[in-house]
User: Fold FAD-dependent oxidoreductase from Streptomyces mobaraensis.
Amino acid sequence: MIDVIVVGAGPTGLTLANELGLAGVRTVVLERTLERGGQSRALNLQPRTAEVLDLRGWLEPIAEQALTTLPRGHFAGIPLDYSVFDTRFPYQVGIPQARVERFLEDRLAAYGVPVLRGHELTGFVQDADGVTATVAGPDGTTTLRAAYLVGADGGRSRVRRELGVGFPGRDGRISMVVADIVPEPHEALPTEWRLPVFDVREGPFLMPLGDGVHRFLFGAPDQTVARDAPVTADEIRTALTTGPAPHFTLREVRWASRFTDATRQAERYAAGRVLLAGDAAHIHFPAGGQGLNLGVQDAFNLGWKLAATVHGHAPRDLLDTYHTERHPVGAAVLENTRAQVVLLHPDDDVRVLRSLVSDLLTEPAANRRIAGMISGLDIRYPMPPDTPTHPVLGTRHPVPHLHDARGLLLTPSSDLTPLLTPWSDRVDHTITPPTSGTDALLLRPDGHVCWAGTSTGDGLEAALERWFGPAS
Ligand SMILES: Cc1cc2nc3c(=O)[nH]c(=O)nc-3n(C[C@H](O)[C@H](O)[C@H](O)COP(=O)(O)OP(=O)(O)OC[C@H]3O[C@@H](n4cnc5c(N)ncnc54)[C@H](O)[C@@H]3O)c2cc1C
Assistant:
């Protein structure tokens, strides 16, 4: 018997499968490709992603595979200072997406979660008790039955389409190429990462990925080219010699793909027993380096809620909060990437606007606002209407570890231990001095505050029930 089918072994699906495996949920990952791709694609973990990976103890082994750390973030290439935040990770971890995926896929073995490569989901039906998926694999077509199915199957999600969930937004207006290339050695080749420039008038934009391989980004000379049209070596050669020198000579193309600023978001992240996460739920221009990060954080929000639901102790409506919490976060990222696309336009009037925005972002308040958004550190989930208000409710609380993905009560004394006992199978307790201007905090498994109070424990039982289910 399977509890959850995860469709797609990208960063979102693999993160979710790890969260489910950790919680003892019987999970199967379906992946249509036979082999893991070596494409660089995303190259960064934003501070909030670093924090959530660190909560489970996964950041350190991932960071060992990193190429670099980037002390800043950026908004349309304009630097953002992350050092103003109370976080252990005020920087971006510079690591190709494929390395993050390899780590996440390899560690699934520890939970006995299989990744069925060469298995493509071709359809599904759901009923009151579960979902039956049709899967085309090496041995023909089979069916798999599970209690839930999650579509983490990328921007062209089959799951989303079969579900009939709307994907409003707009098509792309600009066409870009990303390629991992090996240029001929040249003294002007960059040896360090810099903030991205998308304007050919600045010269070719390259980033070193090690072993002579470079990430190369450029605007397609023919902006009307079809998204699926193969990228030619000639196109890359021409782009390497367009704009001001230095110009470079192409030796080898390892991988190349087109992308656009198409911007769309699923109307609903859940329909019955089927849920959507990552690019399957939202697509946007990769400005600021947020897409992978958004997907990984979707998975951290969904994993513990789905696990509690499968185990039968989830409070009513817990799974619904996945959509209510993550949809606004995705919508905000879509908006900020659209704004960045405008600022990246190579038009002289836009240059003036860009220079003004650059000036503004040197103001601490403006930097904090935009850097909080891009880093993911400003995320504050809405609390249910019946919850007493408190400034830290819904925010992230920087704790070092929640390795077992359980809740955590932080109090200055053991006074509340007896009250917590009926939930001690789901929530841990740490005696710690007050922080965040409050005596006591209750954290969810994703590190967000769901109760803030005093050592009298007013409202704590209601919060425990609200987020962790009935007392046992
Ligand atoms: C050029 C470029 C640069 C980027 N740079 C950044 C960056 O710097 N920072 C950042 O955060 N993000 C960046 N992104 C975005 C990031 O790559 C994506 O947001 C991320 O890959 C989304 O992960 P995902 O797991 O949701 O989907 P995907 O990575 O698309 O994974 C989906 C998986 O599902 C599989 N699949 C699809 N259909 C089926 C099916 N029917 N059955 C079985 N399997 C299926 C696919 O084969 C794939 O493996 C960039 C993207 C591009 C294109």
In short: The chain has three domains: 2-168+264-337, 175-259, 383-472. The chain is about 30% helix and 25% strand. The first helix runs from residue 11 to 22. The chain has a mean pLDDT of 94.
